[in-house]
Design brief:
CATH superfamily of the largest domain: Aminohydrolase, N-terminal nucleophile (Ntn) domain
Bound molecules: fructose -6-phosphate
Number of helices: 19
Strand content: 15-25%
CATH topology of the largest domain: Glutamine Phosphoribosylpyrophosphate, subunit 1, domain 1
Shape: globular
Strand order of the largest sheet: 3-2-4-1-10-9-11-14
Distance between the termini: 12 Å
Length: 610
């Protein structure tokens, strides 16, 4: 989703801003732009399309200055055109603003501004905000006050950075619902919507909270609320390395991240398993252990791939910890009137920790008195900071828009949480040890899958022109079927549906003919025979089966046209292995179709609008 970069310091900032924008490309965007104060005047260049197109303009018409802002836009209000791209300027060209989020009451403000004689060039809500600030500036003659007063009128969400030609030695940033981080360098400061744009300059950062504004100069910055109350901020350290933001020899971030899984699964467990006791120790949940044991109900809420992980968590916890679990789309949860009590525990799952719907669901859960816990990847993200307690999955920066290693990290974490709660309740030490052993083997087993991907590549080549796919699974692997289908849709633009295998005969079976590839996840577990019967039903109608089955399963070859094998593990952990071939299949199909795998059309990495 939209990316923000702002710079104030002593260097020429245009190349620096453009490079930082490149680091934000993974978030998904459709246009880009920069504004720099040059000789006390604002110079703006912006363009629909990729940052590379902006670079071409900036290279042919260089702008030089030491204060500037840059943006990658993901269109919400107004089509992705040059004019709608950010930065936006006011009518007098005194202010340039970049904005993430949505000004929900922009039409009301716009009409008022039009009555005051303002005219607009774009269709965006963001231009309305900069014009409002400009109008207020005419009255108060002070940059900071005008920004604060303007923001007080905004309903909705924003992360902004704004510069003013009349006060050229300042950069102002503010946030409400859309993340912003300030990087502290030597005689320079960088503002960005995520730390990946900052890490090559400095590791020292300050995270702005909702309702806060920062005024930056070359020598320092102040922070306060938009109601003018000073706030003292803590300086934090970025924990990831610049190498994590590079492709490391892989053609795409997605493939690199799929191949990192033996490590990331291990990292999710590191220091958290207690083999002798057959349990897990999760420091982040220590303070709430009793409430977890006593929980009358656990609610998981999340979006997209994180929601699929939560579904697997439901199966794990109900089976082993005998606690009722519900899984909710965060976007629905926040606008229902969910019935919650203080005895409920609500877990939110989020890779980015910034998903607007998930953050709102967390706030709603806490408002109703439930305990709000997080399973998050990005350290220091908004969700991580707002939960009562929680755990990081430690998957490292996930740059590919399609989530892969974060999914298996979430599943690993859910297995650890299940183990911890179940052992506090009724699970025997022997059974706990069996799960611990299963978990410890996962890095090696996932490595085995990844050591031979040619089979998947060949299948992808054969099915790359299919128009539809069906994905089937049962039990722990039903959510994996959903995930496989989502990934294929996202990056290859092939229509795909995920279904519980037995549910297929209640409708989707009508779609099956000799052109329909059906991917079935059928590992060796308690429910395998049932899934085999569902496969027979597909075969009887001519469907083409691609099976993900356990090594040594010879019977499956009788029914399936293609078989991808995964090593044996305990049923609860199979999704962590079975999803790997499905992510690979989606990847290779998308590559074979010539799609932009890391930045699929219309998608954003971190969905900070509802
Ligand atoms: C799918 C994908 C999305 C995200 C969803 C939630 O590949 O990436 O469906 O899973 O937008 O994002 P997070 O986990 O960051 O809250």
């Amino acid at each position: 989703m939209c990316g923000i970069v702002g710079y104030i310091g002593t260097k020429n900032c245009t190349p620096l801003i453009v490079n930082a924008l490149k680091r934000l490309e993974y978030r998904g965007y459709d246009s880009a732009g920069v504004a720099v104060i040059s000789h006390n005047q604002l110079q703006v260049q912006k363009k629909a399309g990729k940052v590379a197109e902006l670079v071409a303009i900036v290279d042919s018409h260089p702008i030089v200055g030491t204060v500037g802002i840059g943006h990658t836009r993901w269109a919400t209000h107004g089509a992705p055109t040059d004019i709608n791209a950010h930065p936006h300027m006011d009518q007098q060209r005194r202010f340039a603003l970049i904005h993430n989020g949505i000004v929900e009451n922009y039409m009301t403000i716009k009409h008022r501004l039009e009555r005051e004689g303002r005219t607009f060039t774009s269709q965006t809500d963001s231009e309305v905000l900069v014009q409002l600030i400009s109008l207020l500036y005419d009255k108060v003659h002070d940059f900071e006050t005008a920004v604060r007063l303007g923001l007080k009128e905004v309903e909705g969400a924003y992360g902004i950075a704004i510069i003013c030609a009349d006060e050229p030695d300042k950069l102002i940033a503010a946030r409400k619902g859309s993340p912003l981080v300030i990087g502290i360098g030597e005689d320079e400061f960088i503002v960005a919507s995520d730390a990946s744009a900052i890490v090559s300059h400095t590791r020292q950062v300050v995270y702005l909270e909702d309702g806060e504004i920062a005024v930056l100069t070359r020598t320092g910055f102040t922070t306060k609320t938009i109601d003018d109350v000073p706030v003292t901020k803590e300086v934090e350290e970025i924990t990831f390395d610049i190498e994590q933001l590079e492709k490391g020899g892989f053609p795409h971030f997605m493939l690199k991240e799929i191949h990192q899984q033996p490590e990331t699964i291990r990292d999710a467990m590191r220091g958290r398993l207690l083999p002798a006791e057959g349990t897990a120790r999760l420091g982040g949940l220590d303070s709430v252990k009793d409430r977890l044991r006593q929980a009358k109900r656990i609610v998981f809420t999340a979006c997209g791939t994180s929601w699929h992980a939560a579904l697997v968590g439901e199966y794990m916890l109900e089976h082993y910890a005998h606690v009722p679990v519900e899984v909710e789309y965060a976007s629905e949860f926040r606008y229902r009137n969910p019935v919650l009590s203080e005895e409920d525990v609500v877990f939110v799952l989020s890779q980015s920790g910034e998903t607007a719907d998930t953050l709102a669901a967390l706030r709603e859960a806490k408002r109703q008195g439930a305990l709000g816990l997080g399973i998050v990847n990005v350290v220091g993200s908004s969700i991580a900071r707002e939960t009562d307690a929680g755990v990081y999955i430690h998957a490292g920066a996930e740059i590919g828009v399609a989530s892969t290693k974060a999914f298996t990290g979430q599943l690993t974490m859910l297995a650890l949480i299940t183990l911890m709660i179940a052992r506090m309740k009724n699970l025997s030490v022997i059974e706990g040890q069996r799960i611990v052993e299963g978990l410890q083997l996962l890095p090696e087993l996932s490595k085995r899958i990844l050591s031979n991907t040619q089979n998947v590549e060949k299948i992808a080549e054969q099915f790359k022109d299919a128009r539809n796919f069906l994905y089937l699974g049962r039990g722990y692997n039903f959510p994996v079927a959903l995930e496989g289908a989502l990934k294929l849709k996202e990056i290859s633009y092939i229509h795909a549906e995920g279904y519980p295998a037995a549910e297929m005969k209640h409708g989707p079976i009508a779609l099956i003919d000799e052109n329909m590839p059906v991917v079935v996840v059928v590992p060796q577990d308690d429910i395998r025979e049932k899934v085999m019967s569902n496969i027979e039903e597909v075969r009887a109608r001519g469907g083409r089966i691609i099976a993900v089955a356990t090594e040594g399963d010879t019977d499956i070859h009788r029914l399936a046209e293609h078989v991808i094998t995964i090593p044996q593990t305990i049923p609860m952990l199979t999704p962590i292995l079975s999803v790997i071939p499905l992510h690979l299949l989606a990847y290779y199909i998308a590559v074979a179709r010539g799609c932009n795998v890391d930045q699929p059309r219309n998608l954003a990495k971190s969905v900070t609008v509802e």
